[in-house]
Specification:
15% strand; 14 strands; Rossmann fold; 8-stranded parallel beta sheet; single chain; alpha/beta; 2 domains; 6-stranded parallel beta sheet; 417 residues; globular
């Protein structure tokens, strides 16, 4: 496997987040095609890649439908071209392909990078017709309920290079599709370690968040971050909350912070489940929070109950950067994101892991966590921040990203000679 996993410097050696990045020797233009810019993992990844490319003196052109992160793209130094590349309609895909090919030729793009399946179909066809290297980026695993879904998903391994944000996802790509390891690169997401620094979050900000949630001072807060989607396993948390109540666990609140785009009935199903199992009083579906550092600081523990492979969840990294212990399902994040037993000894753990889909296992992990002495819980949080500082520093990941994209761009030069 061609791995660009970060192994950056420790705390004392870390460069400031606003330090100028070394510029790449050969300037490149990358077209980043992403279905939306609303706040999902792929959306945030597109913004992060834009920031890295622009800081390195390169050009990033983001093609997507309008969303709230458009300002982040332009603010990071990228260019934005509005185009709805989220459609599954074959006629729309072909029409988008024509538009993308024209953009690639007019803007002299060196790489077309698709972040998502719907975008990848039109981007792949455009790249082939324009003679431009095609790259896909994986942020999560995709369900394959049937042969048609498998064929649809397979576009994500048609890239000249396939980028996965975690070793867990890279292994999935290789196992499921037989993609050769030299074709796969692992480039982790980075974390803004200055923004997600517990020392920079005031008590007033934390109290403002807890007040908005209606949390009493003695309440234990179990934070679940991520869009309200079935694959995130919020229903597992609701059922685990019932088990906690049945076992006499008191003064706790499960807070779900994430967007609900209203495209499915899942939110309604969650409320129905909470009503039927008597957990309405301990479940809070909060609106998306703008001050996420304060939200993490207001919690005792951050949970990911994902029921399908999530790869590298940015929220789990951010929580650890904020010195918060995490509890993840075995689909939520791999050992390259969270250090859990038995993979590491107790003295190195940054969180706990449970079997995906098992509310009993999640409840057991929460009981185990709260049964720990407070110094032990603090030690887990301290190790979590140290782990993120050493492995997900923005500077070292930017360097690796620029090196990788430089290598990919040279594929175009090589094919032209």
């Amino acid at each position: 496997m061609s791995s660009y996993s970060a192994s950056g410097p420790g705390l004392k050696e870390r460069a400031p987040a606003d330090a100028a990045r070394p510029q790449s020797a050969e300037k490149i233009t990358v077209m980043i095609v992403v279905p939306s810019l609303d706040g999902g993992a792929a959306d945030a990844g597109a913004v992060s890649l834009t920031r890295i490319l622009a800081a390195g003196g390169n050009r990033a052109i983001v093609v997507s439908r309008l969303g709230r992160l458009v300002a982040d793209v332009t603010g990071a130094g990228g260019e934005f071209i509005p185009l709805d590349v989220s459609s599954h309609n074959p006629f729309v895909v072909l029409r988008n392909m024509v538009r993308l090919r024209r953009i690639a030729r007019e803007q002299r793009c060196d790489i077309i990078n698709a972040h998502g399946r719907a975008a990848a179909w039109s981007a792949f066809l455009a790249a082939k017709l324009a003679g431009v290297p095609f790259v896909t980026t994986w942020y999560k695993g995709f369900r394959e309920q049937n042969l048609l879904k498998r064929l649809y998903n397979r576009i994500m391994v048609r890239g000249d290079r396939v980028i996965a944000v975690s070793e867990q996802l890279a292994q999935l790509v290789n196992d499921r599709y037989g993609t050769p390891w030299p074709q796969i690169a692992v480039v982790p997401a980075s974390v803004d370690l200055d923004r997600f620094d517990p020392e920079r979050v005031s008590r007033e900000r934390v109290e403002a968040v807890r007040s908005a949630w209606g949390v009493r001072p003695e309440t234990k807060v179990i934070l679940v971050v991520g869009r309200i989607l079935r694959r995130k396993g919020h229903d597992v948390v609701v059922r685990a909350a019932r088990r906690l109540k049945e076992n006499g666990f008191k003064d706790f609140l499960c807070v779900f912070v994430g967007e609900d785009r209203g495209r499915t009935r899942y939110t309604g199903e969650l409320w129905d489940l909470a009503l039927s199992n008597g957990t309405v009083d301990v479940i809070r579906m909060a609106a998306p929070v703008t001050d996420m550092p304060a939200a993490y600081a207001a919690a005792d523990v951050v949970v990911s109950a994902a029921v399908q492979p999530e790869g590298q969840q940015r929220a789990i990294l951010e929580a650890q950067a904020m010195m918060k212990p995490v509890i993840v399902s075995d689909m939520g994040a791999g050992t390259d994101v969270v250090l859990t037993p038995p993979a590491v000894p107790e003295g190195r753990v940054t969180g706990l892991r449970f079997h995906a889909g098992s509310d009993a296992a999640l409840a057991g992990a929460l009981v185990r966590f709260y049964a720990m002495p407070e110094p032990n819980r603090r030690a887990i949080g301290t190790r979590g921040r140290a782990w993120v500082l050493d492995h997900f520093d923005a500077g070292s990941i930017a360097d690796q990203t620029l090196k990788l994209y430089g290598e990919i761009a040279r594929l175009k030069s090589a094919s032209a000679t």
